[in-house]
Amino acid sequence: MSTPYQIAVIPGDGIGVEVVEAALTILDATGVSFEFNHYEAGDDCKAKHGVALPDETLKGATDAQAVFFGAAGDTAAEVILRMRKELDTFVNLRPSKAFQGAECLYPKTNIVIVRENTEGIYMGLEKEINPGEMHATRVITEAASTRIAKYAFEYATQNEYDTVTAIHKSNVMRLTDGLFLKCSRTVAKDYPNINYEEQLVDSAATLMVMDPYRFQVLLTPNLFGDILSDLAAGLIGGLGLCPSANLGDKYALFEPVHGTAPDIAGKGLANPTAAILCASMMLRHFGELDAAKNVESSLETAIANKQSTADLGGSLSTMDMAQAIINHMKG
Ligand code: NAI
Ligand code: MG
After folding, report:
1. Does residue 1 surpass a pLDDT of 80?
2. Is the CATH code 3.30.70.141 the one for domain 105-236?
3. How far, in Å, are 34, 188, 331 from residue 243 at the CA level?
4. For the CA of 255, the nearest ligand
5. Per the residue annotation, which of 43, 44, 177, 226 is the catalytic one?
6. pLDDT tens for residues 62-86?
7. How far is C-alpha 139 from the chain's CA centre?
């Protein structure tokens, strides 16, 4: 038997725990060998140990070949933003692809958001200047903008997308988004086979709702990518369907786009699809393409058969949906 892949599993809080359990069951069923080491982080961890992201968890994450994360509640920034930073995962890759048979606004949506993951207004550089006056700093650098643009064009090339659209607000944020666009344009010149377009973030939001099929790969600064990926989730049927990968030169961390969903947590109602797609992204990351395709096509079949949770029009629980998917898997 091959050496198992070492995975640091951090389920976190709320439905994070439920969807991670479902995804690990699917990974076990692929036949690919994994060793899952579980670590604590999040609100419950903070209540228990006084810290949302213990050193032991961070060490487990950096020692592993990949991290599989669920969601954290109020402590999300302390947990996930810190991990993205410590692991220097400069890419946040967020595909939103509609499933056949799932009710949604736009059944042919296939949008991938390539979000810069280390800077922008998301760095949390905020301070109180005076009572009643708070300032936030938005950092955009040539180095980070260039490396994320390169990733977007490489991703488009390797995954057969024709178009990369840079999202910005450079008419207002002339210096920061001006630099982001300048770097995007420079990188675009090295990829003559990919169409390069630019769109203001506000009009991109309208166009994504009215005509999402015009978009393929969106290259975005940090906060715009966060917002537009939730919008993209809405086009295909909700947050339960959207996975993400945080990728750097050394580390990889996979997590659903959604949070802890306190409104449905603990009831077995959470859709495990986002976490299962995270599992298939992780399999692809390791080059386990057959296993990834097996998971993806079984998931598609289950959703098309309405063997799904209530948000997709089915009546199964989280774990029953996972089991239905396993029943469709080959091998
Ligand atoms: P949320 O993503 O947890 O939930 C938004 C809505 O989508 C809710 O109605 C929820 O029921 C639904 N939803 C989300 N995932 C679903 C799934 N798998 N299946 C079915 N329905 C699903 O976002 P919200 O409500 O804004 O935040 C709740 C908590 O999660 C907050 O404490 C927030 O800080 C945290 N959060 C953590 C994130 C992370 O750890 N990366 C990301 C986003 C939010
Ligand atoms: Mg978000």
Report:
1. no
2. no
3. 20, 26, 25
4. 1
5. 226
6. 999 999 999 999 999 999 999 998 9
7. 22
- Of the bound ligands, which one is closest to the alpha carbon of residue 258? 1
Contact of 199 with 207, CB cutoff 8 Å: yes
Longest CA–CA separation in the chain, Å: 64
- pLDDT tens digits for range 98-149: 998 888 899 999 999 999 999 999 888 999 999 999 999 999 999 999 999 9
CATH superfamily of 1-90+242-331: Isopropylmalate Dehydrogenase (3.40.718.10)
* Residue 255, H or E segment: strand 252-256
DSSP 140-163: --HHHHHHHHHHHHHHHHHTT--E
For tokens 């999202």, name the residue.
Answer: 167
Tell me which amino acid residue 231 is: L
Domain boundaries, the chain: 1-90+242-331, 105-236
Q: Of all atoms in ligand 1, which is nearest to the CA of residue 256?
A: 41
Q: Could you give the C-alpha distances from 328 to 3, 194, 210, 273, 294, in angstroms and in order?
A: 26, 36, 35, 15, 9
DSSP H helical segments within the chain, as ranges?
Answer: 15-29, 43-49, 55-63, 76, 82-86, 142-158, 176-188, 201-210, 222-236, 273-285, 289-304, 318-328
Give the type of residue at 27: L
The reply to whether 1-90+242-331 and 105-236 are identical in fold is yes
Which tokens go with 326? 């396993």
Of the residues 97, 150, 169, 182, only one is catalytic, namely 169
